[in-house]
């Protein structure tokens, strides 16, 4: 398979100080790394596309490392993650699904305590399309305080023959999280759920 052809990358960072209530001691930080690549399958149906996942692995690792750097450089502070893809209109949704393995495992390999599945979303769209990337706790999917999302997108991508790949990381729970459920401090880390 061909090596990914990158047109552009972007990193978006957010620091959330409060949501109308008291400011926490430490603000929540979230970051998204976005990369626009050429879609090697655009405009045609290709039966065997799985090989491209292997080609995307180095890109996934690089993006995960860029995210950790954008959030201060210490992988131990990462508590949430998610991934997604927007496939240009000459592609198909399955092309975005190729990001599941290289994007997810890149983040799990980059940070400690990452047994939980990496949540994901994907859609077809053109330049300016927005994507809500789901975020969950890195080590236990049932940690309700970390159920979140980050909206991402680029004004000039993806073009029809491109894919916009996204990784997202966060440093903690939603600001003012107070709806109960499993607390992050109580995670056993045995099964990726609790």
Nutshell version of this structure?
With 194 residues, the chain is α+β, with helices and mostly antiparallel strands.
Name the features.
194 residues; alpha+beta; 60s Ribosomal Protein L30, Chain: A; 7-stranded mixed sheet; 3 helices; 7 strands; 29% strand; BB2672; AA_synth_put
Please, could you describe this protein's structure?
InterPro entries: AA_synth_put, BB2672. This is Peptide synthase. By secondary structure, the protein is of the alpha+beta class. It has a single domain, classed as 60s Ribosomal Protein L30, Chain: A (2-Layer Sandwich). Helices cover 19% and strands 29% of the residues. Strands 1, 2, 3, 4, 5, 6 and 7 form a 7-stranded mixed beta sheet that branches. Helix 1 (51-70) packs parallel to helix 3.
Largest sheet: 7 strands, mixed
Annotation field: number of helices: 3
Q: How many discrete structural domains?
A: 1
State the total count of DSSP E strands.
7
CATH architecture tag: 2-Layer Sandwich
Fourth CATH level, the homologous superfamily: BB2672
What's the CATH topology name?
60s Ribosomal Protein L30, Chain: A
Radius of gyration: 17 Å
Order of helices and strands: EEHEHHEEEE
Low-confidence segments: none
Span between termini:
38 Å
Overall helicity: 10-25%
Strand content: 25-35%
**Mean pLDDT metric:** 96
Q: SS-based structural class?
A: alpha+beta
Task: Provide the CATH top-level class.
Answer: Alpha Beta
């Amino acid at each position: 398979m061909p090596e990914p052809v990158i047109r552009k990358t972007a990193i978006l960072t957010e620091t959330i100080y409060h949501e109308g209530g008291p400011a926490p001691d430490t603000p929540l930080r979230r970051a998204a790394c976005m990369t626009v690549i050429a879609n090697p399958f655009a405009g045609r149906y290709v039966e065997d596309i799985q090989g491209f996942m292997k080609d995307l692995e180095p890109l996934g690792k690089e993006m995960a490392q860029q995210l950790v750097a954008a959030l201060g450089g210490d992988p131990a502070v990462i508590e949430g993650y998610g991934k997604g893809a927007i496939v240009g209109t000459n592609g198909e949704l399955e092309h975005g699904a190729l990001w599941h393995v290289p994007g997810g495992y890149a983040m799990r390999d980059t940070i400690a305590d990452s047994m939980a599945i990496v949540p994901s979303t994907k859609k077809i769209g053109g330049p300016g399309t927005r994507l809500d990337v789901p975020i969950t706790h890195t080590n236990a999917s049932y940690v309700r305080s970390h159920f979140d999302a980050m909206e991402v997108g680029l004004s000039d991508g993806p073009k029809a023959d491109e894919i916009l790949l996204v990784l997202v990381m966060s440093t903690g729970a939603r600001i003012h999280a107070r709806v109960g459920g499993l607390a992050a401090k109580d995670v056993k880390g045995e099964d990726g759920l609790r």
